[in-house]
Amino acid sequence: MKPLIVVTGGTKGIGRAIADRFIAEGFEAVVCARSIEGIQSDGLLPVVADLSTRDGVIHLLDYVQSLKRPVDVLVNNTGIFLPGQIHNEAEGTFEQVMNTNVASAYHLTRGLVGDMIARRKGHIFMMCSTASITAYTNGGSYCISKFALLGMSRVLREELKPHGVKVTALLPGATLTGSWEGTDLPEERFMKADDVAASAWAAYSLSKSAVMEEILIRPQLGDI
Questions:
Q1: How does pLDDT run across 40-53, given as a tens digit for each residue?
Q2: pTM of the entire predicted model
Q3: Which residues, by range, are in coiled-coil regions (predicted)?
Q4: Which are the contacts of 31, defined by CB distance < 8 A and separation ≥ 6?
Q5: 133 φ, ψ to 5°?
Q6: At what angle are helices 104-119 and 140-160 packed, to 10 degrees?
Q7: Residue 222 located in a structural domain
Q8: 223 in any annotated domain
Q9: Are 105 and 169 spatial neighbours (Cβ–Cβ below 8 Å)?
Q10: Distance between CA atoms of 107 and 84, rounded to whole angstroms?
Q11: pLDDT by residue (tens digit) across 201-215?
Q12: How many CB atoms lie within 10 A of CB 223?
């Protein structure tokens, strides 16, 4: 039986690049998104789920558990970016962003980590951001959520140390995905999604006695 990775927001962008890299290395990948239209590929197990809601998280957990297979890797990648500032962003932005970016990772991790602890094996990746360590004026609730996600990663790392479960926070800078569609900036100002995927695979590939706790990746030419 092939090892299993679960990647939220795994149908495009960085999430899809991670899923594809692990599939190339012999995994099968459960990927979820609010729409999976046209998502068919060997090794992909697509699931429709809106992880901004508890019902969506429960639906994904039910599907994963129905497979009756251990989860070797969890990538909490789903996220939303709504530009704005704390004092003027639309009412409800904070709740929407925190539910999508933070609460989904919290509840999904809680639902899957028990089996990892029991097996003393597993790796959890949290898709943080350079916005987890650098505030910027149009970040608003997004920055808050990414700071929170990095904090959750550090708490999990401490909790899971004695149980043999690894936790890695990925902090990528500007990556050329659909979220930058329409930009006038040249491609060389961005990282590629495959660069983030390669970093995740490198972290996973370490021996059992080593862990990459946090991986900060920026474009060679610096932040945008």
A1: 778 999 999 999 99
A2: 0.94
A3: none
A4: 7, 8, 10, 11, 15, 16, 19, 39, 44, 45, 46, 47
A5: -130, -10
A6: 10
A7: no
A8: no
A9: no
A10: 26
A11: 999 999 999 999 999
A12: 11
Report whether 100 contacts 52 (CB < 8 A).
Answer: yes
Domain CATH for 121: 3.40.50.720
* pLDDT tens per residue across span 3-26: 999 999 998 899 999 999 999 999
- The total of structural domains in the chain comes to 1
Residue 165 domain flag: yes
pLDDT score of 36? 78
Show the domain range for 73.
4-217
Dihedral over alpha carbons 188, 33, 64, 103 (to 10 degrees): 90
CA 71 from chain centre, in angstroms, equals 15
Structure tokens at 135: 């505030």
State the amino acid at position 10 in one-letter form. Answer: G
What is the three-state SS of the chain? Answer: CCCEEEEECCCCHHHHHHHHHHHHCCCEEEEEECCCCCCCCCCEEEEECCCCCHHHHHHHHHHHHHCCCCCCEEEECCCCCCCCCCCCCCCCHHHHHHHHHHHHHHHHHHHHHHHHHHHCCCEEEEECCHHHCCCCCCCHHHHHHHHHHHHHHHHHHHHHHHHCCEEEEEEECCECCHHHCCCCCCHHHCECHHHHHHHHHHHHCCCCCCCCCEEEECCCCCCC
Q: Are 109 and 166 in contact (CB under 8 A)?
A: no
Q: Average pLDDT for residues 147-173, to the nearest whole number?
A: 97
Average pLDDT in the chain: 94
Structural domain contains residue 204: yes
